[in-house]
Specification:
Layout lengths: L11 H6 L1 E2 L2 E2 L5 E4 L6 E4 L6 H8 L4 H13 L7 H12 L1 H9 L1
Length: 104
């Protein structure tokens, strides 16, 4: 039986599995900025679908995608959502580059 958090969204023990280094890639907000206006925005990882992530992958660097896959399979980071994968991408390439990919 799973214990759910106060929002009732994810089993607590499942959420703990996605915590690596204190970061919950599936739940922590992603901070980006509009590359044209410079306005900061916050995106919740659950707002990014797998279809949207696949669209963005076209603009992501192949070595970074390989690193994401390698880190996931070795347990360096855990994510169950597409947004969680994108959050790790933001950490690797920085807000400016990730924002370009997101707004493309």
């Amino acid at each position: 039986m799973y214990l759910y958090d106060s929002a009732g969204q994810m089993p607590v023990n499942k959420r703990q599995e996605s915590l690596v280094g204190g970061r919950d890639y599936d739940r922590d907000p992603i901070h980006l900025k509009n590359p044209w206006t410079g306005e900061g925005i916050t995106v919740h990882p659950r707002e990014i679908s797998w279809d949207r992530y696949e669209e963005m992958m076209v603009y992501m660097e192949e070595p970074i995608l390989e690193q994401l896959d390698r880190e996931y399979t070795t347990g360096h980071f855990k994510a169950e959502t597409a947004g969680g994968w994108f959050a790790r991408y933001v950490e690797l390439v920085g807000v400016d580059r990730a924002s370009e990919v997101y707004f493309t």
